[in-house]
Write a structure and sequence with these properties.
single chain, mainly beta, Immunoglobulin-like, five-stranded antiparallel beta sheet, five-stranded mixed beta sheet, 1 helix, about 5% helix, elongated
Length: about 270
């Protein structure tokens, strides 16, 4: 009569290379070796793969894609958000680390985290939100981002090391928040005179200030274009402190009416 049984034991394969398993079958009463087998296997290195799909800076109520090309007002408060995608065919735990430095090179924020279970399936993204930090110095701010996998021995699968944003010395009007800041394409090729026009509005407190600001900004832009100007840059602010109304302020930088010539447009 032939008897068979199954015995299981688990071993963590945590090193690359050849692994050997020796098995001996012993007689229970005498411990005599009845049979012996040797098995070999090769553990291959895992090629981890992932991509930083989005990186953005939220300053006050404005969201900019890193590197932020618009000037960020000084004394804003910033939050970095990074999305990382799992490019593997298996579910992975995603990790992140980044460091924000001010224009003088001092570290302002160091953020590091690993996602909690359940982990990121193939092709999915995980979002990491950092903490708030004060933007208190004018000049170029930098950030170093590393997207990680394999928590026990972290592997960098994608990275970014460069400009976070440029901070202007402009101070916002008291009580106002920057809602919209747009630099239009024509501004990059135009090399002539410009004019700044400021428009102010007052709306009821029940209309969402961000929505109203965007609508009014678009109307101001349209009216300027009707008069023959080319809009270069637009900044829209809202002051929601008053209880009975909200104040809207729009700064529009544009070419002088009828002042665009071939000589003022770069190649």
């Amino acid at each position: 009569m032939q008897l068979e049984w199954e015995y299981r034991n688990f071993c963590r394969v945590d090193k690359v290379g050849a692994w050997t398993l020796k098995v001996r079958f012993l007689e229970q009463s005498t411990s005599a070796v009845l049979d012996e087998k040797t098995f070999t296997m090769t553990a291959m290195a895992v090629e981890y793969a992932g991509t930083v799909t989005k990186k953005q800076l939220t300053y006050d109520e404005t969201i900019g894609i890193i590197p932020v090309t618009a000037d960020v007002p000084i004394f804003s408060r910033g939050i970095v958000t990074v999305l990382g995608r799992n490019d593997m065919t298996t579910t992975q735990q995603m990790g992140i680390t980044w460091t924000v430095n001010d224009p003088e090179g001092y570290e302002v924020e160091h953020y590091s985290a690993w996602e909690a279970w359940p982990y990121c399936p193939p092709g999915d993204e995980h979002k990491f939100d950092g903490g708030r930090f004060d933007i208190e110095k004018p000049g170029d701010w930098t950030i170093n981002i590393e997207l990680l996998m394999n928590r026990d021995s972290p592997v960098v699968v994608d990275s970014y090391d460069g400009l976070l944003c440029s901070v202007s010395e402009e101070v916002l009007p008291p009580g106002y928040n920057l809602i919209q800041h747009t630099i239009y394409h024509f501004a990059y090729i135009y090399d002539g005179d410009d004019e700044v026009t400021t428009a102010t509005f007052r709306i009821d407190p029940f209309t969402p200030s961000a929505w109203a600001t965007e609508k009014l900004a678009e109307k101001v832009k349209t009216e300027a274009e009707k008069m023959g100007s080319r809009v270069l840059e637009l900044k829209a602010y809202a002051d929601t402190r008053p209880l009975l109304w909200s104040d809207i302020k729009i700064d529009l930088k544009a070419t002088p009416i009828g002042g665009v010539t071939a000589a003022s447009v770069g190649a």
